[in-house]
Amino acid sequence: MRPPSSTPWWDSPAPSSTRRSPAPTGCGIGAAGVVDPATGAVVSATDSLPGWEGTPLRAELERRLDLRVTALNDVQAHALGEAVRGAGRGHSSVLTVAAGTGVGGALVVDGRLVSGRRGAAGHFGHIASPAAVGRPCPCGGAGHVEAIASGPAVHDLYTESGGLAADTREVFALAAAGDARAATAVDRAARALGVLIGGLVNEVDPDVVVLAGGLADSGERWWSAVDSAARGEMLPLLRSCPLVPARLGADSAIVGAAEAFSRDHPLTKATS
């Protein structure tokens, strides 16, 4: 990614208390569901968001805010934020994989999000996984990565083995404390995610892979299993590809959505 010719808006000093803040010139938003990049409308959403599919997100926000709006998927916004300002900054090709309640991600090349024709690119969790054969997926299908590598899947794997835990966080705590069944659940999920990542690296040959989402904060055991499985799946030539944690936390989607707006409306960047 080429360095900016001048100080980018996100590095500008915050306005002092004696200086009036500029009026907003637009709005970037990252939202759940598949957001069509051409229309800014939600064209697909899961059953967990009833009535969300079909929402004219960009048009409705422009009407209510009386501002120009750029809308994109929240995970894509997260990935763009990490690529331009976070763990991927300075790299021309950044693959972000987010694992938490679900599994998703995005590819950013030369600062541009690869969103696909309908905005659906990055549904990595719905790639078939040999480790998930027969396991139901939240999308309505079965055998997908999300069915075994997501946070809820870790909890399911543990309870299916006879373990008792209130949530996924407790499964990780039990694994760290030496519970063999919890450790097995964590390892199975992490290895499945690692195999996915290795396959994606073989496909796109990125400069760096950024791991994000709640599971990326779960500790060394998960990271080690993901990394080992990923490198075992990668072509020998690509095994030096770094896997790094996301840096921006909850701010990444905000940064990415703002960046997407500034790319759509470049004349507003200087005054944002």
UniProtKB/TrEMBL annotation:
Q: Which InterPro entries match?
A: ATPase_NBD, ROK
Q: Which SUPFAM superfamilies match?
A: Actin-like ATPase domain
Question: Where is the stretch described as Disordered?
Answer: 1-25
- Which intervals carry biased composition (Low complexity)? 12-25
| Gene3D superfamilies per UniProt | 3.30.420.40
- Give the record's family classification: Belongs to the ROK (NagC/XylR) family.
What is the name of the protein in this document? ROK family protein
Q: Which organism is it from?
A: Frondihabitans sucicola
